[in-house]
Amino acid sequence: MDVDQVAPLRGAASKSLQRRSWYLLGALGLVAFAVVIAVAFASVVNHNASVSRLKNGGIHVTVIVESCLGNIGGSGSNSAGFTCHGHYRIGNTPFHELIGSLTTYVAAGTSVQGVVDPAQPSKVVLASAVRRSNPSEAAFIAPVILLFLFLTLSVLLIGKARRQLGSREPFMHARKAPPVN
Fold first, then answer.
1. Which tens digits make up the pLDDT trace of 5-42?
2. DSSP conformational letter for 136
3. Tell me, what DSSP letter sits at residue 2?
4. How far apart are the C-alpha atoms of 157 and 155, rounded to whole Å?
């Protein structure tokens, strides 16, 4: 037996993926990546809109704290804020919700000032947190970087597919059939 030859294993013969299959898999990965980027952009836009609504048209309410539990960090050795629930009214409608942005312990029965998102009356945030927050263009940095990475990977995949498959057309388009006489 020659050194360059490898003896086949017993059992069924294995098949490898064809080159086009790898490009299709890469294209599907890019589609999934594009969905992640779209969700990231939508999340930033939604958060900035929520901050704007709270600052400019938020409904100021008094929230009565019902319960407050401490959160611990990932290692369990440090505090990571508090999860507090409270109740408030908007008109005649009562709400029992999570109070956003509490970082210190608040005893049950304590009144805190909150601001309710008019588009989401079940979302209440501390008034002091709303005063300190602003919509941020900087929040778009990560999605923009991901978008540039996506574009770069797309160009690389299409360029490699063109070279490897020997076509000047994008690999996703069908080639023209020769004329039939």
1. 666 667 666 666 677 788 889 999 999 999 999 999 99
2. -
3. -
4. 6
